[in-house]
Structure formats: C-alpha cells, structure tokens
C-alpha cells in the first residue's frame, strides 16, 4: 500500500497529518473499541486480526481498545490490559503488524473507576446461552467507595508504567481515556467527585489527578511520541460544561498533550444525529488552538472529508462504521480522489485481483435477478485482459524435450 494515499498535499480527509514523530497517511482513525475478549488482560490472535484488518483497510491511525492500567481498573473481566510485562509480547505483534501496513499504532490507556467489574456485554441481562460465564470478580463490588490517598497516589505511576510499556511495544502514540464517566472523567465531574481534599471540590481540585497523570505519562515517553486525550466535552449528568472543558484543554496542552479526541458522555435523552459531536470538536479547536479529532455517527467519506476541509477538526474517528466496513478508507479514496485507479491505495496483494475483475463488472453492470450463469441472462468470458499479469515461461518445443526410448 502506498505510504500516503490521498490528496497531493491537500487539506482533505486523504491528506497526511503529523503529530510529533507520528505521520498519519490520512486523517482517518479507528476509535478504541472494547472487545471484552482478553484473558487476565492478555490479548491474543483475535486482537491481532481485529486491529490488523484496519491497517490493511487504509486507516491512518489504529487505536487499541482501552488497556487497563491496573488489574482492578478493568470495566469487564475480558478487558485487555497493560499493567504487567506479561501483556507486552502479544501487543507488540499488533503494533508491528499495524505499522508494517502503513498505519500508526496507538494505545489507549484507562481505568474504569466506579464502572469496573461489569459483565461482558453479551452476558448482561442473564443472556448466557452459548457463552462461557465470567469468573467471579476478585474484588468486592458493593458500590463505589472513596479512594484512599495512597491509592490515588499510585494512579499516575500506573498510567506512566503502562505508557512506558506501550512505547516499548512499538506503539507510536498514546491516548489517555478521560471520557464517558470512566475514572479520570469521574474526577472531573462535580456530580461524581464528592471528595473534600485536594482532589475534589474546586474545578482545579477535580482536575488535579488527571493533570498529574498527563505529567507522569509525558515524562516517561520519548519526545517524538504524541499524547492524545479522549474527553467528554460536556457531561450533563456529571455537571461538566463546555467552559470547564476549555480551561482543562488549555491545561492539558501546557503539559504536552498534542490532540483532543472529542466525545460526550452518553445520557438518557441525548439527541443523536449524523456528526452530532463534531460541533464540540470544532469549538474546542477554534477557541484553544489545540488540534482535535471528531467522532459521533460519521459514516460517509464525503461527510468526513467536509469535517476536515471546513477545518472543524483535524482528524476523524470511525468506530462502529469501521466494524461494518474495515476498508472504509479505501472506499473513501475511490470516492474522493476523482477519476483514476480505484485500487491504487489497496494492498498490492488485493488490488491486483480487484483491478483485473473491474472490466468484467463494468461490462456486465449491476447484478440483478436472472443474470446468473445458469440462466439465459447476460454472460461474459474470461479473457487474458481480465487476468493479473503472470510471469511468462520460455516455450519448449517437442524437439527440445528429452526423449526416452520406448
């Protein structure tokens, strides 16, 4: 696959984008999506194939699911983790494969806080048929309890240790999860943070621990590794408004954060529409000067391209649409680049076959009932022009062949 398939220096979705030492071949990013399929936090071949397909599909950056920085910080028993060196080898395979196929491998790090210990999604509501039940959770789950000062003090170090492991495994960017009412998001929300010590109360107190996490992480990473932060721009149930977020984003930038991945905390009654969170990415970018990534029901290439061209965000995050179409950026390339080779951006192993089939499909037109070969509908023959090029072998005449006596 070309290193940077896309606009020749243009500002649209297909143009490259740099974050410190990480050069994205285009502006598309696969969001972190928890798969709940790890064992004791250890990933396996499923995760390699799951994330690797997005690199083959042309994305500029591929984020892992949220990797728990402590064993107790997993949202479910099946969450992947990076609290131990045991997790390094399989994640290094992921990073190596993603990078080898043109995308920037990025690791999202997080702690679930009061959201820890949930059943895996397909086991909720007692639906266990055909599934292996979760083992018992090894910590009490009576309800949220205030963290001790010693536990809080250990959190920045846990994030820093996980970030150092991610860099050692070959990941080219780190994202810190501070959204969706997970732990660091809970710290920021007055409706969820009732502490009366230096880690609660005022806005500055609530921001203290998240900022300490950033400082510790930035300190252990090489200078060329960018740090992203996923934020809920607004958290209506938690009481976080956009003004508080603007102040916090400026504080993050002062501590070396390179981009804000802009989301919102889901809540009952939230109005959903195509691109419903883009306005927050646009506003943060315009008012703080910090690059942003937009997300939220962005499903079509032209929709995403407009977000970048209109300077509403610098990157576009794709999540569930990527699950439905892992080759989404390749389809975007064919739609947005204008007349030319529809398969120029594809991996050569796939592109040659698709390119050779295209003339046949163009002659046949779209399939409809009655066009299969066992009917009297239109047909086509395989010809040399529809085949990928093959190495030619020298021809040998009968006179040149070795003969045996009868």
Which percent range describes the beta-strand content?
5-15%
Order of helices and strands: EEEHEHEHEHHEHEHEHEHHH
Helix content: 25-40%
User: Would you identify the CATH H-level superfamily of the largest domain?
Assistant: Aldolase class I
Q: Could you tell me the CATH topology label of the largest domain.
A: TIM Barrel
Low-confidence stretches: 1-10, 397-406
Shape: globular
Spatial strand arrangement across the major sheet: 3-4-5-6-7-8-9-10
Radius of gyration: 25 Å
CATH architecture assignment of the largest domain: Alpha-Beta Barrel
Largest sheet: 8 strands, parallel, barrel
Helices, by number, come to 11
| Tally of individual domains | 2
Number of strands: 10
> Distance N terminus to C terminus?
55 Å
CATH class of the largest domain: Alpha Beta
Task: Provide mean pLDDT, rounded.
Answer: 87
Could you say which structural class the secondary elements and strand pairing correspond to? alpha/beta
Walk me through what this model shows.
The chain has an eight-stranded parallel β-barrel, surrounded by seven helices. Strands 1-2 form a two-stranded antiparallel sheet. Helices cover 33% and strands 12% of the residues. The protein folds into two domains: 17-120 and 148-336, Aldolase class I (TIM Barrel); 348-387, no CATH class. The protein is globular and about 75 Å long. The protein has 406 residues and is α/β, with parallel strands linked by helices. Strand 1 and strand 2 (22-24) form a beta hairpin. Residues 1-10 and 397-406 have low confidence and may be disordered.
């Amino acid at each position: 696959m070309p290193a940077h398939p896309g606009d020749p220096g243009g500002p649209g979705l297909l143009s490259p984008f740099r974050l410190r030492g990480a050069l994205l071949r285009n502006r598309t990013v696969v969001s972190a999506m928890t798969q709940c399929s790890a064992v004791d936090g250890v990933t396996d071949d499923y995760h390699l194939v799951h994330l690797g397909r997005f690199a083959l599909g042309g994305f500029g950056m591929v984020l892992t699911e949220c990797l728990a920085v402590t064993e107790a910080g997993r949202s479910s028993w099946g969450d992947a983790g990076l609290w131990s060196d045991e997790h390094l080898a399989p994640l290094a395979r992921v990073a190596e494969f993603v990078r080898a196929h043109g995308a920037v491998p990025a690791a999202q790090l997080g702690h679930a806080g009061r959201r820890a210990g949930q059943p895996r999604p397909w086991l909720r509501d007692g639906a266990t048929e055909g599934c292996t039940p979760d083992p018992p959770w090894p910590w009490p789950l009576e309800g949220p309890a205030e963290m001790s000062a010693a536990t809080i003090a250990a959190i920045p170090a846990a994030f820093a240790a996980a970030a150092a492991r991610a860099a050692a495994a070959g990941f080219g960017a780190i994202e810190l999860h501070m959204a969706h009412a997970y732990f660091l998001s809970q710290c920021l929300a007055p409706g969820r943070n009732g502490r009366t010590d230096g880690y609660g109360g005022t806005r500055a107190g609530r921001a203290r621990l998240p900022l300490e996490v950033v400082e510790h992480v930035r300190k252990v990473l090489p200078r060329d590794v960018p740090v992203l932060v996923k934020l809920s721009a607004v958290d209506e149930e938690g009481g976080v408004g956009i003004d508080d977020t603007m102040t916090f984003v400026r504080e993050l930038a002062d501590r070396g954060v390179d981009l804000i991945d802009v989301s919102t905390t889901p809540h009952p009654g939230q109005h959903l529409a195509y691109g419903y969170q883009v306005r927050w990415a646009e506003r943060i970018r315009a008012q703080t000067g910090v690059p942003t990534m937009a997300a939220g029901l962005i499903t079509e290439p032209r929709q995403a391209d407009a977000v970048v061209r209109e300077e509403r965000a610098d990157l576009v995050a794709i999540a569930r649409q990527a699950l439905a179409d892992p080759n989404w950026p390749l389809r975007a390339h064919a739609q947005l680049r204008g007349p030319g080779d529809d398969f120029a951006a594809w991996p050569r192993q796939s592109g040659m076959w698709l390119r050779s089939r295209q003339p046949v499909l163009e002659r046949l037109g779209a399939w409809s009932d009655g066009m299969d070969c066992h009917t009297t509908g239109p047909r086509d023959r395989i010809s040399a022009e529809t085949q990928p090029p093959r190495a030619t072998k020298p021809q040998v005449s009968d006179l040149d062949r070795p003969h045996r006596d009868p």
